[in-house]
Amino acid sequence: MHKDKDNERVRTRELLLDRYVLALDDGDPEETAAVLDAVYEAALDDPEIDRLIMEITRAYREERRLAPMDMDAELVRALLRQHVPSAFITHEHLKKPLTVGEVAGWLQAQGRVRPGDEETNRSLLGSAAPLPKLLNAQEVKKLAAGLGVSASEFYWRVFRDAAITMGIARSNSQVQLAARERRMRRNSRRDEKKQDS
Q1: Is residue 184, in this structure, part of any structural domain at all?
Q2: pTM above the 0.70 mark?
Q3: Could you give phi then psi for residue 85, rounded to 5 degrees?
Q4: CB neighbour list of residue 43: distance below 8 Å, 6 or more residues apart
Q5: What is the pLDDT of residues 123-144, one digit of tens each?
């Protein structure tokens, strides 16, 4: 299973790298932007792809004898903001606590709501109430009372399990994002030192 995931990651990386090189060779800004958007998503699972994209970009610029990157940085940022706005989406939501509405939305999307609890779940979809840090059965009961809704015990057990799962996933995303930002800062400093040399 682990080997299959690694093989899939390598296949995805190779496809994206091929698409990137072809887009650069064709001078196709839309395809380049689309590939960079896909790379941004893939880099969360495959940090190696960031490094390879930077190497390809550097080699392409050297081959074409293009101006140093720092001279073009503002233009590139403006183009990326125009063509790949998702590259500039903030991850502030990862720093905020999960809300009742987010969990209810996940339960609905996953089809985890039993017929008798559908109305309660729908009423919670828009709730911005934050989840308590400690999600034991007692806190979930207090939360339900505070929200003024009633549902089956099964619903609240599934709600609690989903909230815990989503909290873990969010924590993992925070760790990956922080690691990616550190890598990008480190690579940027390394590139600056190379350009100064």
Answers
A1: no
A2: no
A3: -60, -25
A4: 49, 50, 180
A5: 999 899 998 887 788 888 899 9
